[in-house]
Amino acid sequence: MANEGVLRIEGLRKAYGDNVVIDGLDLTVQPGEVVVVIGPSGCGKSTLLRCINGLEEIQGGRIMLDDAEVDGRSKNIAQIRQKLGMVFQSYDLFPHKTIIDNVTLSPIIVQKRPKAEVVAEGEALLDRVGLLDKRDDYPRQLSGGQKQRVAIARALAMKPEIMLLDEITAALDPEMVHEVLDVILDLAREGKTMIIVTHEMSFARAVADRVIFLEGGHIVEEGIPEQFFTNPKTDRARAFLRTFEFDAVRSHV
Amino acid sequence: MDFGAMAEYLPLFEQAMWLTLRIGWVGILGSLVIGLIVAMITHYKVPVLYQISLFYIELYRNTPLLIQLFFMYFALPRVFGFGIDAEMCGMLGLALLGGAYMAESFRSGLDAVEPIQTESALSLGMTKWQVMRYIVLPQAVTLSIQSFVANVIFLLKETSVFSAISLMDLMFVAKDLIGLYYKTTECLVMLVIFYLIIILPVSILGTVVERKLRYGAFGS
Amino acid sequence: MELLGLDVLFKGSNAMRLLQGLGVAVEISVISVIISLVLGMLFGVFMTWKNPVARVISRIYLEIVRIMPQLVLLFIVFFGATRVMGLNISAELSSIIVFSFWGVGEMGDLVRGSLESIPKHQYESAAALGMNKAQIYYHIVIPQAVRRLIPMSINLVTRMIKTTSLILMIGVVEVMKVGQQIIEANRMASPNAVFGIYGTILLLYFLVCWPISMLARHLEKKWSN
User: Fold this and answer.
1) What would the mean pLDDT of B194-209 be, rounded to a whole number?
2) How far apart are CA A140 and CA A137, in angstroms?
3) Chain B: which residues have CB within 8 Å of chain C?
4) Is the pLDDT of residue C35 over 90?
5) With contacts defined as CB-CB under 8 Å, which chain C residues touch B23?
6) Does domain A7-91+162-242 have CATH number 3.40.50.300?
7) Is the pTM of this model over 0.90?
8) Would you put residue B107 in left (φ > 0), alpha (ψ -120 to 50) or beta?
9) Residue C27 contacts by C-beta under 8 Å, 6 or more apart in sequence?
């Protein structure tokens, strides 16, 4: 069982009509590994995560989770998705359910686990993301950062083998980014397998086992974070990293 | 005003009110069922059924109930050789008219639920049916509750044309009594009072619901 | 043709008479629509006043329009005027009075709704750019309000045309009444006329209302962003 939770992507191709978004991408993610995907907007990062979760129809290649193929049209896709926890950029909590119901709904109706057990676990997860006191509130009463922490707890409640995080802090006010990313750092420390798409470079550097730089639907460069961020091998990665810096206009001597 | 005459007419009006309520509520219940089914068909664009549904919605929304009833009560049985009970015809006619309106409000409710809601429910491993049952439908119904109340009031008002297919509803009784006894003022006053009894509670309930929704559909 | 009773349409001037009947219905709705539009605008602005008396009056008026079936209003005006007050007003005039009374209320509510739908920051940012009150209304508020208003008032027009079917019940000779007369006259010769005539009237109403509804939907979509 050592290889449980291996994700293998082979020759993945995704296009919207003539617009090719992902063009022959190969990637293998080992259990316990944290892979951070970065790249300019429109490079296909989010699409990649959506493909891994079977939310997009793919035009070529295949995505394997252990021995099962991830295919949005297949009958067992719901089973496979239970092993893949996903958190989206927008606050996608279910507005008509309380916080605890958001977390416990799918373990109860999808996995058919006993309610008492699920609720106890859900409370533990809420406690872990620091929101147990919001248990009976509705999503609209929470701040953006709090909502994303609930979304993470909701995904974890399904006990997924791999977490897929799609720019989960992109829509947040700056002061809320940290509280969300701290939860993720904690998960990484615990050895959770994760594929993370983000624009937060210092976070990427802190959390990643491996950084993947995506551009034009290809992996342009990959490596361990220290090497990638301090000494990128390709010009394109170097150009991309430079967009996060500003040159001083005034000198202060 | 002749209160003696009004007291005398009271049982007639009361009976007519029950008829209106019976047809009204059965018709509205029917329109809910039709509306939900048709809304799902148009939202998911189920082939063939989608085209039929669109035709149905346009036809019923763009013609008066009165002629719809005439057609169903006098014309169809004549050519296809079946009989239809007037009360049955009223209920069916109201359900079909209401179905077209309910379908439109439910559909816009379904359309208003963000696609990300469906995606995140799917990503939690729910089946399409579970997504509809637990996530999309409850939100869509809440989003369309305002137009739902408006439709109920509209349909209750529309019941006033039933006298045209010789159902002894409030209008029928009023017109009959006016013709017979010339107690016009009394009959008109009673007509107004009885329609208030039927529709005012729904209108008030609607206002309460609307106010509640304005402060956010869920929580607080 | 005979099975469906369509033959009756081509007898004598029957088709022409039906169209004339439809003309009466359309005429009554056009007159009522014009009155409703003009007075409805004024009423809508009146409703945005903060004056408590204005509020109570418009509230009661709107509730009457909202709750009372149009047919009840028709009965009240027609029978009330002729029988109770002894006024000699025709069924046509009663219809116009009722439809206008109803239309002004609905139109006023639409005007109020579309004026109030303009977010406060639109006024504020216009004011911040140095516009005066008239300029804010003329350049910012009214153009946006009108775009919300027009599709909804077009829908009011189709509702009015559909509601004209009711005036048959107070004896106006419009398309439905003409239809009944034709069916009655041909009862023996073509008993299936009931299908052909009512089917034709259904279609006529549809042909009048459907294009108008489509226009409203088109404008709504076009202006929704």
Assistant:
1) 90
2) 8
3) 58-59, 61-68, 70-71, 74-76, 78-79, 153, 157-161, 163-164, 171, 174-175, 178, 182, 184-185, 188, 191-192, 195-196, 199-200, 203
4) yes
5) none
6) yes
7) no
8) alpha
9) none
Radius of gyration of chain C (CA): 22
Q: Where are the domains of chain A?
A: 7-91+162-242
pLDDT reported for residue B12: 87
Contacts of A251 (CB under 8 A, 6+ apart): none
Residue spans per domain, chain B: 3-214
Banded model confidence at residue B220, pLDDT cuts 50, 70, 90: very low
CATH fold for the domain made of C7-223: MetI-like fold (1.10.3720)
Residue partners of A173: CB distance under 8 A and separation at least 6: A144, A145
Tokens of A196: 């993370």
Choice among A38-47, B76-85, B126-135 with the minimum mean pLDDT:
B76-85
Predicted local distance difference test score (pLDDT) of residue A2 = 45
Q: How many CB pairs under 8 A join B and C?
A: 112
pLDDT in the model for residue A100? 95
The minimum CA-CA distance between A100 and chain B, rounded to whole Å, is: 13
Average pLDDT estimate for B2-30: 89
Q: Widest CA span of chain A, in angstroms?
A: 67
B218 chain-A contacts, CB cut-off 8 A:
95-96, 138-140
> Are the C-beta atoms of residues A69 and A75 closer than 8 Å to each other?
no
Topology of domain B3-214, per CATH?
Answer: MetI-like fold (1.10.3720)
Answer yes or no: is pLDDT of C73 > 60.
Answer: yes
Kindly report, residue by residue over B59-105, the tens digit of the pLDDT.
999 999 999 999 999 888 877 877 788 899 999 999 999 999 999 99
Chains B and A share 3 or more Cβ pairs within 8 Å: yes
**Average pLDDT, whole number, for chain C?**
86
Q: How far is CA A9 from the centre of its chain?
A: 16
Nearest CA in chain A to B114: A92
3-state secondary structure B98-147: HHHHHHHHHHHHHHHCCHHHHHHHHHCCCCHHHHHHHHHHHHHHHHCHHH
Tokens of C48: 């945005």
For tokens 């992507």, the residue is A9
Q: How many CA atoms lie within 13 A of B82 on its CB side?
A: 8
- Could you please report the per-residue DSSP string of B2-40? -HHHHHHHHHHHHHHHHHHHHHHHHHHHHHHHHHHHHHH
Q: What are the two backbone dihedrals, phi and then psi, of residue B45, each rounded to the nearest 5 degrees?
A: 50, 50
Q: Predicted ipTM? A: 0.86
